[in-house]
Every structure is written in C-alpha cells, then in structure tokens.
Fold:
Amino acid sequence: MTEPIDPTRQFRLDGKVALVTGGSRGLGREMVLAFAHCGADVVIASRKHEACAALAERVERETGRRALAVGCHVGRWAECDVLAERALDHFGRVDVLVNNAGLSPRYPSIVELSEDLYDKVMGVNLKGAFRLAAVLGTAMFEGDGGSIINVGSIAAESPSPNEIPYAAAKSGLHSVTKGLARTFAPKVRVNCIMPGAFMTDISKAWTPQMLAALERLTPLGRAGRPDEIVGTALYLASSASSFTTGSILKVDGGAA
Structure:
C-alpha cells in the first residue's frame, strides 16, 4: 500500500536557515514567525537591534527554533557584509534570504528632494538588497542552493508623485531579481513579491480620504493584513516553488 501524498510537506522548512531584513515588524515579522513555525531557524535583521532581540526571544519561546538578532542598516554596504558573515558564522549556512527592508519617506516636492534623502532611499531599497543577494547568493550557489526573495512594490509599476525615488528603487529591484535568477541558476532561485497596500505601521499615517480611495480602487475593496503575505513567502521560500525563478508575484488585492 502506497503512502498517501501530503502536498503540505513541500511547504515545510525543516533544517533550513532563513534571514529576513526589516524582520522585526510588519510584513517581515510575519514572515519570520511563519518560517520558524514551519521549521526554520531564523536571522532577524533591522536597524533596531532591541526589536530584533525581542522577536528572537518570542520565536524561540513559541516555536523552539533558534533565532539570531542582528542590528543592521542595509543601506550601508559594509553592514550588509557583516550581517551575512554573522549569519553564516552562527548557523553555518543561509538557505533563504528575504530582502524586505524598505524606506519611503515623504518629501515636500520633487525639486526639494535632497541628494542625501535620495541616496538613502536607493541604499535601503536597492543597494543593500543587491549586496546581500550577491554575498549570500554566492554562498548558496557554492553550497546546497537556496531561495532569495526580494520584496518590491506595486509602486514600481504605478508610482505616485510622492514616492518616485522609492518606485525607481523597487523597479530596479525587479531587474536585479531577473538578473540574479540567471546568475545563480540552477541552484538558487530568485523571485520577487510585489505587495500592494498592507495595514502595517505605515498605515497609521493614512488619512480617512486615503483609505477610502484605496478601498475604492482595489478590486478586493481593502488593504491587506500583514499575515496575508505569509502564503506567498512560504511558497517562494520552500520547495513548493522549485520550478519558479525570475518571477515578480503580485500580492495587492488586484490594485495593479
């Protein structure tokens, strides 16, 4: 008698190590918790080490998985290298990298946007993701392979006047995704999640008018809940997506 097929097994991450930038809150926190509950040890990185440490303690308490907290500003090349080194030294491998850290500060007008702010937006959203993917993707390729997940934005395709540098960085991240998918093939898969509006901390700044417009323009009639990113992240992190690479996957309620 053959054993029944359990298709949910391919979404497990037992024995894997996952690193998530911007991992202490919002979509990153949901992905960290999901990966740990599915069997992965995790590296939680963000600029605020204390927030990473608090989540690491929760992960270990709730799931029994190991968790490493690392304070890192991903807009700084050298700090990305230190983050990768610490993760590899601590766990001996990284199987899943999620470049989730992002930044989209408002500016008074396009001509008043400062060079420093422009460079900061590009650094956090594009430069850091490229560097981490280059370093850890190379380690994956030289080892047993792995999965890199970049987190873009529908702004890459439909930028508003208030997020042009952010949109440009996320558009660049789409190109990086496709290029690295070819660079690291066939051992490392590289894909990108393209979220729409989600009810993370940033949504606290939305006016009632902004929220009403979002609900009107989104076919599903609302913004996403942070936990609604989990299914897509698990798919791309796990062997469930073993024939998926170079893809940009929208999770936006139909908005784009």
The beta strands are 17-21, 41-46, 67-71, 96-99, 146-151, 188-195, 248-251.
